[in-house]
């Protein structure tokens, strides 16, 4: 992690900051972007790419390897790393840079961010395909995070009001869904001592609350109604159409199908498949675990029907 972070910061981020100061005479955030009217064409595209790749915490391919390695942390720490603290800082920084340093009008000029758009799309699909082939539960969730983080970068690169709104919403809704999944992984480890997807068959009958919450969070991460995760994908799709990239809607649809494929079979098999360990008595997770899981899973539902707090967040990032 330190090697990737320092390497990308020195090679890409620092030159981008220096170039921004040289072109704009300032590095202060400003609504509409400080580079508006002071840079254009390929210069903007190259500079934006330096910022995007210079922020290693965003885990964009090929600088993503640190994130699956971080799964060795205890599960509660993994929940914070993957859902709230470290990884969100990177994509939030990219989102702020797109709005306040460049401005979406400048980034929306024809063709400036096309190459970045395809790199982000490859990350979204590629990480999901890799997740599909992981048997370790936390590792599967880690690659899911790489894919989901790229949704936020996608919103910045599409550079439309709707896409930035979608990216902002996705930061919040993904946090709620992914922290629920990691809480469930921790509860499964504590109560059943299982870490592999192939070991979870039949577990839902012994841990119904945990696996029920896992199902709710999986639907939210996949972006399906009636869960909060739908809102981010909805606005990202609108943003792609507004920006003239209808093909990106296809990327989001393929990603959704992959999300379904690597997440939903876990709780479905947990409830309906034969138990992987029929002779082992397993009880539900301890009450403190269940309280945390229930609260975050409930938020996945509540924020779908009452999304006003999410829209308040988008108002903090004027475009």
Walk me through what this model shows.
The chain is an all-alpha fold. It has one domain. Helix content is 70%, strand content 0%. It has 15 helices and no strands. It has helices spanning 2-24, 42-54, 66-69, 75-83, 86-102, 104-107, 114-132, 137-158, 161-192, 208-222, 229-242, 246-263, 265-272, 287-305, 308-314. Helix 2 runs antiparallel to helix 5 (86-102). The longest helix is centred in the middle third of the chain and has 32 residues, at 161-192. The two termini are 32 Å apart. The model has no long low-confidence stretch (mean pLDDT 88).
Poorly predicted residue ranges: none
Largest sheet: none
Count of helix runs: 15
Beta-strand proportion: under 5%
Rg over C-alpha atoms, rounded to the nearest angstrom: 20 Å
Whole-number average pLDDT? Answer: 88
Distance between the termini: 32 Å
Briefly note the structural class of the backbone: mainly alpha
Q: Which percent bin holds the helix content?
A: over 70%
Morphology:
elongated
Question: Could you state the order of secondary-structure elements as H and E?
Answer: HHHHHHHHHHHHHHH
State the domain count: 1
Compute the number of strand runs.
Answer: 0
List the helices and strands and how they pair.
Elements: H1 2-24, H2 42-54, H3 66-69, H4 75-83, H5 86-102, H6 104-107, H7 114-132, H8 137-158, H9 161-192, H10 208-222, H11 229-242, H12 246-263, H13 265-272, H14 287-305, H15 308-314
Helix pairs in contact: 1-2, 2-5, 4-9, 5-8, 5-9, 7-8, 7-12, 8-9, 8-11, 9-10, 9-11, 9-14, 9-15, 10-12, 10-13, 10-14, 11-12
């Amino acid at each position: 992690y330190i090697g990737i972070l320092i390497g990308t910061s020195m090679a890409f981020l620092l030159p981008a900051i220096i170039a921004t100061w040289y072109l704009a005479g300032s590095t202060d955030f400003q609504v509409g972007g400080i580079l508006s009217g002071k840079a254009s064409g390929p210069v903007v595209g190259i500079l934006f790419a330096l910022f995007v790749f210079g922020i290693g915490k965003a885990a964009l391919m090929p600088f993503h390897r640190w994130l699956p390695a971080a799964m060795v942390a205890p599960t509660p720490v993994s929940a914070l790393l993957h859902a709230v603290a470290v990884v969100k800082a990177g994509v939030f920084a990219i989102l702020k840079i797109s709005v306040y340093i460049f401005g979406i009008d400048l980034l929306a000029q024809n063709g400036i961010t096309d190459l970045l758009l395809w790199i982000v799309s490859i990350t979204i699909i590629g990480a999901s395909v890799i997740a599909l082939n992981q048997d370790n539960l936390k590792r599967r969730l880690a690659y899911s995070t790489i894919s989901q983080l790229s949704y936020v970068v996608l919103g910045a690169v599409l550079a439309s009001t709707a896409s930035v709104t979608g990216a902002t919403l996705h930061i919040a809704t993904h946090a709620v869904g992914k922290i629920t999944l990691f809480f469930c992984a921790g509860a499964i480890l504590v109560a059943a001592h299982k870490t592999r997807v192939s070991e979870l068959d039949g577990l839902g009958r012994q841990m119904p609350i945990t696996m029920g919450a896992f199902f709710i969070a999986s639907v939210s991460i996949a972006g399906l109604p009636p869960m909060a995760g739908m809102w981010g994908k909805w606005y990202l799709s609108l943003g792609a159409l507004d920006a003239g990239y209808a093909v990106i809607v296809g990327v989001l649809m393929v990603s959704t199908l992959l999300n379904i494929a690597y997440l939903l079979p876990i709780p479905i098999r947990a409830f309906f498949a034969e138990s992987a360990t029929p002779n082992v008595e397993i009880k539900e997770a301890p009450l403190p675990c269940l309280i945390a899981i229930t609260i975050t899973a409930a938020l996945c539902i509540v924020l779908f029907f009452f999304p006003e707090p999410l829209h308040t967040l988008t108002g903090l990032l004027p475009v």
